[in-house]
């Protein structure tokens, strides 16, 4: 009788363990944002009196400080770029070790505008995600890297046209094109906001940088400031809603936090980078990859 009880207890323990382990292995994804919230944000963003400066024939620089977006203060910079390869050269300056400031990369590339790129080794420098440039693979995604931070790619084809790419099941090596910078999470695809993994990286508000393309072939490089009383930052879901409200069809998240930087020719750093813990233009952080926009 005692032996039977022991077997029964062991059986129950195995069932509990199996159910618990199975639940832990499932992807805990958030629900897509409600239409009402998306519509409200779209109305606020579209009705805002944005400061707009035409800094080149192919680039407009827009800025607005919101007092109550997502019930918070938000500082948003938008670089609106003509995506026609006959008008604009999109490039990805990089370093394989050490660090590269967005401003320095932009100046060296004679760019009109620039934003920071993807994730990097904060101790030694160099990219930590897949990166291909001019047909040559420069870097593979590091082992153990969070999958949702490398499920999107900024592709540049042989003609110079950019696109936002979802990671294929076969991996990034199978994506054709001249250059490919991987990052994530993927925010939008074919006009739809995507559900996201439920975790602190996605849910907490931080400075964020994202890039998207519109149906009429405009490139929108967007920086949301954060970590300041004047700018509280965005979650990944909020960043997706912002990109949708601005008119993106496809969009992806880039490196954020202290890395988030927007640069414009003749103005310098135009957002409020947080790396110096001040709400000014001086807190730029060195990164590994930069996305630059230049006149053809």
Identify low-pLDDT runs: 9-27
Q: Structural class, please?
A: alpha+beta
* Percent in strands: 25-35%
End-to-end gap: 85 Å
Pfam families: NAGPA
Keywords: Signal
Domain Phosphodiester glycosidase: 109-293
Signal peptide: 1-22
In summary, what is this structure?
By secondary structure, this protein is of the alpha+beta class. It has helices at residues 2-25, 35-47, 102-108, 200-203, 236-245, and strands spanning 51-56, 59-69, 72-82, 88-91, 113-116, 131-133, 136-139, 152-156, 162-166, 179-183, 186-189, 192-193, 208-214, 218-224, 248-253, 262-264, 268-269, 290-295.
Properties at a glance:
296 residues, 5 helices, 20% helix, alpha+beta, five-stranded antiparallel beta sheet
What does the model show?
This protein has one domain. It contains five helices and 18 strands. It has helices at 2-25, 35-47, 102-108, 200-203, 236-245; strands spanning 51-56, 59-69, 72-82, 88-91, 113-116, 131-133, 136-139, 152-156, 162-166, 179-183, 186-189, 192-193, 208-214, 218-224, 248-253, 262-264, 268-269, 290-295. A hairpin with a 2-residue loop joins strand 2 (59-69) and strand 3. The chain is globular, with a radius of gyration of 21 Å. It starts with a helix and ends with a strand. Keywords: Signal. Residues 1-22 form the signal peptide. This is Phosphodiester glycosidase domain-containing protein.
């Amino acid at each position: 009788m005692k032996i039977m009880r022991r077997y029964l207890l062991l059986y129950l323990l195995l069932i509990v363990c199996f159910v618990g382990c199975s639940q832990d292995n499932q992807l805990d994804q958030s629900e897509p944002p409600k239409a009402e919230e998306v519509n409200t944000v779209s109305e606020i963003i579209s009705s805002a009196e944005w400061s707009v400066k035409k800094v080149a024939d192919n680039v407009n620089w827009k800025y607005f400080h919101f007092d109550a977006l997502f019930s918070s203060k938000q500082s948003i910079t938008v670089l609106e770029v003509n995506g026609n390869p006959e008008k604009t050269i999109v490039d990805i300056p990089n370093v394989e070790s050490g660090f590269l400031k967005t401003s320095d990369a932009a100046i060296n590339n004679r760019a009109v505008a620039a934003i920071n790129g993807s994730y990097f080794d904060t101790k030694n420098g160099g990219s930590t995600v897949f990166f291909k440039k001019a047909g040559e693979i420069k870097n593979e995604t590091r082992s153990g890297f969070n999958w949702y931070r490398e499920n999107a790619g900024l592709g540049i084809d042989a003609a110079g046209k950019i696109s936002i790419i979802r990671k294929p099941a076969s991996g990034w090596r199978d994506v054709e094109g001249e250059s490919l910078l991987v990052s994530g999470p993927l925010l939008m695809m074919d006009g739809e906001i995507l559900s996201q993994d439920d975790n602190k990286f996605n849910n907490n508000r931080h400075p964020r940088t994202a890039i998207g393309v519109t149906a009429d072939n405009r490139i929108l490089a967007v920086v949301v400031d954060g970590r300041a009383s004047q700018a509280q930052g965005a979650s990944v879901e909020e960043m997706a809603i912002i990109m949708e409200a601005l008119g993106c069809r496809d969009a992806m998240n880039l490196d954020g936090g202290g890395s988030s930087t927007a640069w414009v020719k003749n103005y310098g750093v135009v957002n409020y980078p947080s790396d110096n813990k001040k709400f000014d233009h001086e807190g730029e952080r060195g990164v590994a990859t930069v996305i630059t926009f230049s006149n053809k």
